[in-house]
Automatic annotation (TrEMBL):
Topological type in the membrane: Multi-pass membrane protein
Top-rank taxon: Bacteria
Gene3D superfamilies named in the record: TonB-dependent receptor, beta-barrel domain
Keyword Transmembrane among record annotations: yes
Localization, UniProt: Cell outer membrane
Domain Outer membrane protein beta-barrel: 422-683
Keywords: Cell outer membrane, Membrane, Signal, Transmembrane, Transmembrane beta strand, Transport
Limits of the TonB-dependent receptor plug domain: 56-148
A Pfam family assignment: Plug
Region (Disordered): 368-399
Coiled-coil spans in chain: none
Principal location class: membrane
Natural source organism: Undibacterium squillarum
Name of the featured protein: TonB-dependent receptor
């Protein structure tokens, strides 16, 4: 079946979504009295369960995620069904849902957008209480998640008076990476508190190999490159929570999260030219070091009243400071230094948030929810670069100062209610006003402002037999980043090519508008197993892609709005648990497939960086005090057009993980091996224009990691 036939019936527009949402929200005929109905949870006993009966959400508790000895949030996420951790060549790992990442997945911390400068790699696993995955978020969450949202819930507190210590040792390629965590909680009258301290040291070696060639007989090119690197990171983080239960019935809470980190990298690269022109620096090396400080604080006041429900006032502040230094040295074939480059920089991020939320929900989860929020943010960035030729040339320097001010104002309203037949309806609308002002010392200011209207409408039907059907329609957005908007040039270190171009921003970029519809069905097959099926479709307008050009021999990439794209997908998940004598088992299988269509100057393609299909299988065994398990993940090959002349192909290796977990009194021990097969990641990029084809093959080495975790409760 062709893509044209698959997508021919999918022509949703935002006006249709808005009409559906407003109809469900305000139509008086749909308002019914609360009825006592039987609610059946589809839970086969597998680790996850629905924490919100009326949202398309899965909740994973920490006790079900910690077997593999994860040290940060990204290692926890890779164990979840439907979540893919993908590496694109030498780029950093990326979190994906439904085959998409790179801005299509929304990462939340305690229900709020992750602040700028924060990443899932920087959140210690010991600070996470649970993880929630939501395919269709309600109106109370930002609708910047066409593929879904991942909500990282930090630990609220331990049982009063409990202390806990945890030591982790990881071994990878002969290098040890220790992690130590200490947690303490207490309570005095109406006051309760929690404190978590974690320190870690990570060391990791990397290997990257690449080959380049073309089909030009008159000017043949054949080159090879080998790059070795060593990455080190030292992290110290602290989390505090304090809560006061007010005698009048409310409560006041404060939480703080402070982290210092020092990442560093040493890199050596050797390039060999078999035929063709010589590269600028056949031998080069670089050193990178940074000092980061992140501070996140939040205060929340909750008050409940029988007459008008619950009122929550939230005030938060996020700050990040980063100082970086980058040294680059390029040499010729004889090892003689040709050029030295020094880049120093600093980033100062400040983000504030003030929100007022209200809800009037009865015991049957019927009623109204709403809220208003204001979130201003500012970023100041400096970058000083000096290039010093060592053959007598004049030095070249570039000094930049970049300032970005933004604000987001939000108003949202949502209505939940039942009908007598077991139908549940949720309808809402979210209005966001986004303002952005970007300026630096060399270009004109860039100003943008947008109204983002996001209607949400969901229908849920539950039966007493454990079956459930869901239908949802929503409007999502993907905003351009500051890096994409500023019209300044970012120069690559070495070997400018179609596969490694300079990059320039585009101040005229518009956000992507994404209309979606999805269907979900869950059912219990028997007392020990359950099946879940999902279908979804998305239509994107003003999709952001890249335009590749060459001027005076220099390749440059620039983001542009490329028209529309369409994307449909299917997911299936099967869960089963049972017993063989004293041995209990839990098995989960998840599979997905995605189809998309995008036209680039007359060339049909898939959406870039989209996984076409894949599957994950997990098996957990338990007998008394010990547990063991396997996780196997398979991802299909990505083939797509990055531009009309540039094609990419990514081959993702099969990944197998294993763990053993046992408990003895107040102590726990965990042994795990991640990426047992240790297969390399291969990718191919091809540039085709007027009969000329240039190809680059890249291989990133992989290695298995052995972890041993010791935990004691005091």
């Amino acid at each position: 079946m062709s893509h044209a036939v698959l997508f021919s019936g999918f022509r949703l527009r935002p006006a249709v979504c808005l009409l559906a949402g407003c109809f469900g929200l305000f139509c008086p005929q749909m308002r019914v009295l609360a009825q006592e109905i039987q609610v059946v949870r589809v839970n086969s006993g597998a680790p996850e369960g629905r924490s919100d009966e009326f949202s398309n959400k899965q909740s994973f508790q920490r006790s079900d995620l910690s077997q593999f000895g994860a040290t940060d949030a990204s290692e926890l996420l890779r164990q979840l069904p439907g979540v893919q951790i993908v590496q694109q060549g030498a780029k950093a790992s990326e979190v994906r849902l439904r085959g998409m990442g790179n801005g299509y997945v929304q990462i939340l911390v305690d229900g709020q957008l992750m602040p700028r400068g924060f990443s899932v790699d920087s959140i210690p696993a010991s600070q996470i209480e649970r993880i929630e995955i939501e395919r269709t978020p309600g109106a109370g969450q930002s609708q910047q998640a066409a593929a879904g949202s991942i909500n990282l819930i930090l630990k609220p507190r331990f049982r009063a008076g409990q202390s806990e210590a945890e030591l982790t040792q990881s071994l990878r390629q002969g290098r040890w990476s220790p992690v130590f965590a200490l947690r303490q909680s207490g309570q005095h009258g109406d006051w309760s508190g929690f404190w978590n301290l974690q320190a870690e040291q990570q060391t990791e070696d990397g290997l990257l190999q690449a080959d380049r060639r073309n089909n030009d007989l008159q000017h043949p090119v054949q080159q090879s490159m080998t790059e070795t690197s060593q990455q080190r990171k030292t992290v110290l983080s602290s989390q505090q929570r304090l809560q006061w239960r007010i005698p009048s019935g409310g409560q006041l809470g404060w939480q703080s999260w402070l982290q210092w980190s020092r990442p560093a990298q040493d890199k050596q690269r050797q390039e060999t030219v078999i035929s063709g022109d010589a590269v600028p620096f056949p031998f080069n090396q670089s050193q990178f070091a940074a000092l980061n400080r992140s501070w996140r604080q939040e205060m929340q006041w909750d008050q409940r009243e029988a007459d008008w429900g619950k009122l929550s006032l939230i005030a938060g502040w996020n700050q990040q400071l980063r100082h970086t230094r980058y040294d680059f040295s390029g040499s010729d074939l004889q090892g003689k230094a040709l050029e030295q480059r020094l880049v120093t920089g600093s980033v100062h991020d400040n983000e504030f948030r003030l929100a007022l939320n209200w809800q009037q929900i009865n015991a049957d989860e019927q009623g109204w929810k709403g809220g208003i929020s204001w979130q201003p943010a500012s970023r100041t960035e400096t970058r000083d670069e000096t290039d010093q030729p060592l053959n007598g040339g004049m030095p070249d320097s570039d000094q930049r100062r970049f300032i970005a001010d933004s604000s987001r104002s939000t108003l949202w309203l949502e209505r939940n209610w039942f009908q007598q037949t077991g139908w549940h309806q949720q309808a809402g609308i979210r209005l966001e006003y986004w303002q952005n002002r970007l300026r630096d010392n060399q270009t004109s200011p860039v100003e943008q402002s947008r109204w983002l209207i996001s209607p949400v409408w969901q229908q849920v039907w539950k039966t007493a037999e454990g079956q459930e059907w869901r239908l949802g329609i929503s409007q999502n957005w993907k905003l351009p980043t500051s890096f994409q908007l500023i019209p300044r040039r970012y120069r690559v270190d070495d070997h400018n090519s179609p596969f490694n171009p300079d990059q320039t921003g585009n101040p005229a970029l518009k956000p992507e508008a994404i209309t979606g519809i999805e269907f979900n069905h869950q059912r219990k097959l028997d007392e020990s197993s359950a099946l879940e099926l999902g279908l979804f479709a998305r239509q994107m307008r003003d999709r952001i892609g890249y335009d590749l050009t060459q001027t005076n021999g220099i390749w440059n990439s620039r983001p542009v709005n490329q028209g529309s794209a369409r994307w449909i997908g299917a997911e299936a998940e099967l869960k089963r648990d049972g017993k063989f004598g004293d041995l209990r088992y839990q098995m989960r299988w998840h599979a997905y497939a995605n189809w998309s269509q995008l036209k680039l100057n007359g060339v049909n393609s898939r959406l870039p960086e989209q996984l076409p299909y894949g599957a994950q299988w997990q098996l957990d065994l338990q007998n008394g005090a010990w547990k063991s398990g396997l996780s196997l993940q398979w991802q299909g090959t990505e083939t797509y057009n990055e531009t009309s002349v540039l094609q990419a192909e990514n081959h993702h290796p099969l990944q197998l993980d294993w763990y053993l977990h046992w408990q003895q009194g107040s102590q726990q021990f965990k042994l795990s091996v991640t990426d047992l097969l240790a297969r390399s990641h291969d990718s191919t990029d091809r540039y085709r224009y007027q009969g000329l084809e240039l190809e680059e093959n890249m291989r990133v080495g992989k290695a298995r990691t052995v972890k041993l975790v010791w935990q004691i409760k005091m």
